[in-house]
Design brief:
This protein is an all-alpha fold. The protein is built from 4 helices and no strands. Helix 1 runs antiparallel to helix 4 and helix 3 packs antiparallel against helix 4.
Length: 142
């Protein structure tokens, strides 16, 4: 469970950074003259937390096949898009089609960014572990 919390924390912080970037870009496109108070700073944290919920709900200990993992990720993405759209538009998307599409697109890009960043981090960790194992094996042989 401890490792799952650490993984979710990584996901949260990567998501929050990418959410900030997406909010800046979409805000610059759709409401460039709008000014906000400090209360707006809490929204990326809330959205980052909400994006972590499907990760906890859909957690499994068993090894998934590539197909199962892909389906798992797609379902997670759909749930995250639905949660964020519901929060941003409070269930009333009508009249905001362009903004809703931009938000959904941003969520997809952020999700793919998080998956890619986590993949690269895992790849680096695996390489470090492989290198350490080789060093250990060389020590045992001699």
């Amino acid at each position: 469970m401890k490792e799952r919390i650490i993984e979710t924390a990584k996901y949260f912080f990567i998501s929050t950074v990418l959410i900030n970037v997406a909010m800046y870009v979409t805000g610059s496109l759709f409401a460039p003259d709008q000014k906000f108070g400090y209360e707006v700073m809490i929204y990326p944290l809330i959205y980052g937390f909400l994006a972590c919920i499907p990760s906890f709900i859909m957690y499994t200990n068993r090894e998934l096949s590539v197909r199962q993992a892909l389906i798992h990720k797609i379902i997670q993405l759909i749930i995250i898009v639905a949660i964020i759209e519901a929060m941003v538009f409070k269930g009333n998307i009508s009249g905001y089609a362009m903004q809703a599409a931009a938000v959904a697109g941003s969520v997809v890009v952020i999700y793919l960014g998080v998956v890619l960043i986590r993949y690269k981090m895992d790849q680096k960790t695996a390489q470090e572990m492989t290198d350490q194992l080789k060093v250990f094996q060389n020590k045992v042989r001699t």
